[in-house]
Fold:
Amino acid sequence: MLLRTFQSVVGILFLAHVSVVSAEMTIEIIGAGENQVPVAIVPFGGEGKLAQAIKDVIVGDLLRSGLFRMVDSEGKYPHAPAEVSYPDWQTRGAEVLVIGTVAAKANGRTEARFHLLDVVKQTKLIEQAVSADDVQVRAIGHRIADLIYEKLTGDRGVFNTRIAYVNRIGQKYNLMVADSDGYNEQIVLSQDNPIMSPAWSPDGSHLAYASFETGHAVVFVQSLYTGQRKVLADFSGSNSAPAWSPDGKQLAVVLTRDGSSQIYLVRPDGSNLRRITFSDAIDTEPDFSPDGQYLLFTSDRGGSAQIYRMPVKGGAEQRMTFGDGNNYSPHHSPDGKGFVYAHFSSGKFYIATQDFKTEQMQVLTEGGWEKKPSYAPNGKLIMFASEGRGRGILATVSSDGRVKQRIFSQSGDAREPVWGPYP
Amino acid sequence: MKKLVISVVLVSLLAACASEKPKEPVAPPKAAAPVDAAPVAETPAAATPEVAEKAAPTATAEIDQLNDSSSILAKRSTYYPFDVSVVQEADKPLVQAHAKYLSEHPERNVRLEGNCDERGSNEYNLALGQRRADGVKKMLILGGTKASQIKSVSYGEEKPKATGHNEDSWKQNRRTDIVY
Structure:
């Protein structure tokens, strides 16, 4: 709603091309939202003493959304509303201004106090303190960026969420968890055998995944807090494609123990296993609808890989994708109104979405080696596996297809990304 | 600008891949021969030392055919067209030869490892690779091998033998390996 106030000034789509560079990674942003809000962010008072400048984190987040552009703040350093001269910022073309201070507290935490100011109306939009452990200064920046994003767009921000993916370096496979911007990477599991299909529990506390460490694909569930893990499914053949139900009380998995790859339901402790698809074909990549009532999945029962939908309780399967090419890896949008998937045709993979009502395919990317899409929890961004500079990389595209970014980590091939839930 | 150039190169590379015709028709037996021939040279060399080692404890005066590099048993891989999992005509003699050997050597076990090219999702390819391995398993059982002698697994597209985005690599990766 509030974004509308700013739409009058910037109404033209133009191409932004920004790189946010650090020692660990490069992030390329291509494209821009239709209406970008001009924002000025002043370096926070006291941030020079921190390992990470708060301002840089906020700038990176807001730019990656494609909905903001940065106005130079050089030469002006207000940290409190009383120090702000609004005409200065109006002259520079800023519509909103972010100022603040940050300091380490005695209890091992760092606290930032910030203001979001409306330069046009000369009013205060947000005044808030945000704190985190000293070692998580980036989290403070992400939280502030979320608050700014929410105030100005009306949508919930996802800068403070995490992603999981597999990084392959030579023969080494690392299951990784990182902030949604790719920073703050942590290794969950490291081994010499492939790891596939990480899936977040709805509360973000566990990852389910398939690992080949025992010589064939076995599904594990691992706690991100204790690191403890247990086998969820280890039958003969392949065990894979775990997907959590929205209430976290069961998972769908794909097993070949009775023949071809079929979908089963199982409790997180491995009990109450039951088969729910009964075809001679490949049925795989189940994904629960947000209301928990339906599954989307990939099947070749019609002769080529396509997306199907069925009630979780059983019942008629319905084919969802038609036309040229094959379709894989469906994921519901968070509002349940459609889904994103990988579309393969004429030798290229594309990221595409489809609305349940209109049944129209919308292709969001130019095509290449683009696989395994998943939505951010606010439905505004889609993360997927892509390629760049000869390596596997993580990439995102806005759900309207306008803004794309590519994340280059230091080394290895990034694969199988999946966006985690809200914290 | 540099990044734009990279994208253009990437796009043309992918366009080159696209021209490789991903959906080749199911090859008739004779046409499939060249696909077979390429990887064969590699297979015996890689397999022999391992086989010799494992065979040692059970070795008798009789020569184990598995150690004979001129035997059809030296061929340990079946190959497939894109998105196909049935054993092709060209590979049936070698699968049947392994079935015969295994039925005559019930103390021997094999592991069938299905693999795929990278076209398709990782999970779909895991399923397809399993179907390839299970197709070989069925043929071995029809040929007299006991199910208890066989373990079938899939690596999907996770363990490619060749890593290029082209048919030369892909045809080597659409494969079931028979591992003693």
